[in-house]
Amino acid sequence: MTVDAVRGGVPEHGRVPKYFVVKNQLLNLLAELGEGALLPAERQLAVAYGVARSTLRQAISELTMEGRLRAYRGRGTFVAAPKLIQPLGLHSYTEALHAMGHQPSRRVVTVDCQPAGSSLAADLGVDATDEVVHLERVLLADDEPLGLESTYLPVRRFADLMTDFDGTGSLYQHMTDRYGIRYAEATERIETVLANPREAMLLGTNPAQPMLLMQRVSADQDGVPIERVRSLYRGDRIGFATRLIG
């Protein structure tokens, strides 16, 4: 067996599940159909590929979870647009989306104050009893929900944030314009998770859809913590890239 075959998903024992064969056949079909095209009916595809409809559905389900297909109740299943690939770095969401030719926006879900607690206090350099601003927003690209972001900032440093910032714009830009802050460094962790029912509802997605969870603590040019951010992104609609230099 060739290396290419192994890399193509064929295990060493050579036995390939039927759904995987169909999945690859469907990928070729999607390339032929092009973005936005309606996928042929299940019955037609099952006959064309000589498989049971349950096998076909498994292949379609995986492609939908991966963001290659998009299903709309009552309308059918369509070839999805390519994922947005956002560069990892100290950039604002607004800047990144504009650079990719998309229109960013945000929908505010929650704005409140709460005690920091021990975990937030350690990350933000405040006391556990100090208050933090909690800003929760749905991140959109061309009016489509892509992510759910919760940002925590120390009240004693940004006391007027809740009155000066409406939450729909770029917090990154507001910090620069209002406070003269430059985002200089950050520690970030990325992992895969499943959304809880509330998160799935806010993002308009299936709770079983894999998500990318990014947790970041940012600091300014003086090394003072600015914020802790928890961002949950739809794995079917967005990916991330970075450049590594040795």
TrEMBL record:
GO terms assigned for molecular function: DNA binding; DNA-binding transcription factor activity
GO BP terms in the entry: negative regulation of DNA-templated transcription
The superkingdom of the source organism is Bacteria
SMART domains named among the record's database cross-references: HTH_GNTR (SM00345), UTRA (SM00866)
Q: Which residues form the HTH gntR-type domain?
A: 16-82
List UniProt keywords, sorted A-Z: DNA-binding, Transcription, Transcription regulation
Read off the Pfam families from this record: GntR, UTRA
Q: Which SUPFAM superfamilies match?
A: Chorismate lyase-like, Winged helix' DNA-binding domain
Q: What is this protein called?
A: Transcriptional regulator, GntR family
